[in-house]
Amino acid sequence: MSSQDVTGPEMRPLRLRDVTIPHRVWMSPMAQYSAGADGKPTDWHLVHYGARAIGGVGLLMVEATAVGPWHRATSADLGIWNEEQAAAHRRLTSFIAEHGAVPAIQLLAAGRKGSHQAPWNGEGQNGPVSVADGGWETIGPSAIPFGGLHVPREADHADIDEVVEAFARAARMSHLAGYEAVEIHAAHGYIVHQFLSPLSNHRTDEYGGSLQNRMRLPLRVARAVREAFPAGKPVFVRITATDWVDGGISVDEAATFAKELAAVGIDLLDISSGGVVRDRAARAPVRDGVHAEFTDTLRKASGLAVAPVGPIGDLSQARELMADGRADAVLMGRALLRDPYLALRNRPGDKVAWPSQYHRAL
User: pTM for this structure?
Assistant: First the structure.
């Protein structure tokens, strides 16, 4: 019996369009806030992602990467809005692919959650950076700030069109960079989520009010990315299953959105929640695999593959979720920050999976 048979369903390959992912333990995008002023990856990114690729993940999702300079969360965000950045990303994608993982990237437009400090500086993600200090004007669906951050300018129709085109351009640059999958970040309170949620979207035009209106920008973005990215490569969406607050996005609304995403041609839902308002009650409960509680509902509504993100702390949880049919893959973040070789530890009898340089340790 092979080591894959021994280790369970999480080690089966998964094919999405023309891309075959060798197994179903994936690295979740975890922002490093370590890019240069030009938004290009640095040596830190090569070492950080390189270690996890060597460590055996099936798909490696590079952190939230801005689709434009004014769509960043911080001035240290990665960017993918021009060809020079795309060329710099090739250093990552080449190394990741060379070591057996599928390179993927998450695309970000921060909206009202932009122009803040890195988490470890000052007030961190609740610390605004002024234009005079190198920050930028932010936009949102409505002029409602997130916590202590800047009051955003309400986006007009030209701004909305620019957001859509920025995502499309970033998808084209991602292909040029060598990424085999892209993910639209539609969760955690960033601009796509801001338009979806009635907590942050108080508009009275065709982009606000009813769920159909609030989905208008997110679906335009999804359609634009799907059309801009090669047909043989998959597009994921990190979806918000619930805002955890009365009056916010409900699971039923998320299911409707998921169905519409399937119609656009999205391939997989990366399931998360919360983050649209700065309220402790609006955070996901701290319990193992909390987002797997929504997979059945969203899969049944959409027919799409589903992959919950944390907290999934170890491989036994990942195995259980897939053995029970609750997930097609799992995205692990903090656990892989702690241990870049976590996925390889799932194959104790498979010496070939480990780099030959490390065999003397086995």
Answer: 0.95
Peptide bond into 311 cis (omega under 30): yes
Report the residue count for the chain.
362
Query: Which one of 190, 207, 341, 358 is the catalytic residue?
Result: 190
Residues 257, 259: Cα–Cα separation, whole Å: 5
- Enumerate the domain spans of the chain: 3-356
- Asked about 190 being catalytic, the answer comes back as yes
SS (H, E, C) the chain: CCHHHHHCHHHCCEEECCEEECCCEEECCCCCCCCCCCCCCCHHHHHHHHHHHHCCCCEEEEEEEECCHHHCCCCCCEECCCHHHHHHHHHHHHHHHHCCCEEEEEEECCHHHCCECCCCCCCHHHCECCHHHCCCCCEECCCCCCCCCCCCEECCHHHHHHHHHHHHHHHHHHHHHCCCEEEEEECCCCHHHHHHCCCCCCCCCCCCCCHHHHCHHHHHHHHHHHHHCCCCCCEEEEEECCCCCCCCCCHHHHHHHHHHHHHHCCCEEEEECCCCCCCHHHCCCCCCCHHHHHHHHHHHHHCCEEEEECCCCCHHHHHHHHHCCCCCCEEECHHHHHCCCCCHHHCCCCHHHCCHHHHHHC
CATH architecture of 3-356: Alpha-Beta Barrel (3.20)
Q: Tens-of-pLDDT digits for all 362 residues of the chain?
A: 333 444 689 999 999 999 999 999 999 999 999 999 999 999 999 999 999 999 999 999 999 999 999 999 999 999 999 999 999 999 999 999 999 999 999 999 999 999 999 999 999 889 999 999 999 999 999 999 999 999 999 999 999 999 999 999 999 999 999 999 999 999 999 999 999 999 999 999 999 999 999 999 999 999 999 999 999 999 999 999 999 999 999 999 999 999 999 999 999 999 999 999 987 666 777 777 789 899 999 999 999 999 999 788 888 889 999 999 999 999 999 999 999 999 988 775 667 788 889 888 88
Q: Are strands 235-240 and 181-186 parallel, antiparallel or unpaired?
A: parallel
